[in-house]
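Title: Prediction job returns without error message
Component: structure pipeline
Severity: low
Priority: P3
Assignee: unassigned

Description:
Job completed but the reporter wants confirmation the result is attached to the right record. Sequence as submitted:
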Amino acid sequence: MRYILAVVAFVHGCCHLPGFAVAWRLLTLPELPYRTTILRGRLDFGDRGIRVWGLLWLALAVAFGLLAVGVWLRSSWWLRMLPIAAGLSALCCLLAMPEARMGLAANLVVLALACAAVRFPGDVPAVTDPGLDRLWHSAPSGGGAVFDPGGIPEPGRLYLQHAIAPGTSMAVSARLRMHGEIKLGSWHPFHAEQVIVAGRGMIWAGTVSLFGLPVRGTDHVLDGAGLMDWKLFDTVPVARGEGPDTSRSGIGRLLAERALWLPSSLSGASAGRRGVEWIGVDARHSRLRLESSGEKIELTIAFDDRGRVSSFRFPRWGNPDGGKHRYVDFGAVVEEERTFGGYTIPTRLRAGWYYGTDRFAAEGEFFHATIDGVEFK
């Protein structure tokens, strides 16, 4: 799909060149005679003005040529540029009717191919937030420490001994790749990348295929400040959230996901200084008090006799029903785990609001995810 889109974009760009050449009298075509008017003769630019019009056709030709290169090379900027170029091209074609009527159809084809390309992430990968790399590279190394379960009460010790292999370097950050589906009225596929850094926060950047259209954005919490920002074609705003409520909800999510996907943050003598307190419950559950940037949660983890996580839950700040923000039970069912670099973590789960009640399956469940790969540092 990527190569088809690149070729079509390049050909479409070449089709803009006659508009430039004829306006500058560099070329004579029977089907495209020289005129100084547009809009079916209603607007006369004159000889000089029509040359400026010709330069616009040349600029569009160059733009589509660059788009073809960007798509071919899997660059990160092409999707943001494409709707702008296609929109300007369609406008020019409308003004140059009837000669440019085929250009309108060509722009629709380019947009359709772009949507199809984004919908198949194996062909054209997600355009990710550059902040992912910045956050990942800003994380310090683990300092050479290795896992030691000493000082952790049961059943927390069972969980961590299952999650972290003996002698594993204690990571301070994790980078995850995932795919799944998210419920926005109905279920829609997504693929995403996430970076978690203990002591800093996280960035989750993804692409959701919304009726075949690419909606891209990030949910992040950095140094206590949360932000949600999603756009269609990286250009048209779809959803945005910021402020105290967004931050509190995001910090709750960060604390829970850090505990599950960066279990080294729960271990060691410094755990208490990082706002981690283990509270033993019984042989199949453990409760942790977690704190960051003034937000506190109590995370309950359920696991089997081997320490494998089966579910987790915590009160999370939010308003899933659109009402007033408050603490609502949030949780997930864990269906699979895998081991990466000495860490065994949940890799397939179903998450949502109202966990533990009938409302979870009926209206609260909205996120299904599968972890495809993890890197620890």
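Comment from assignee: result matches the submitted record. The chain has nine helices and 15 strands.
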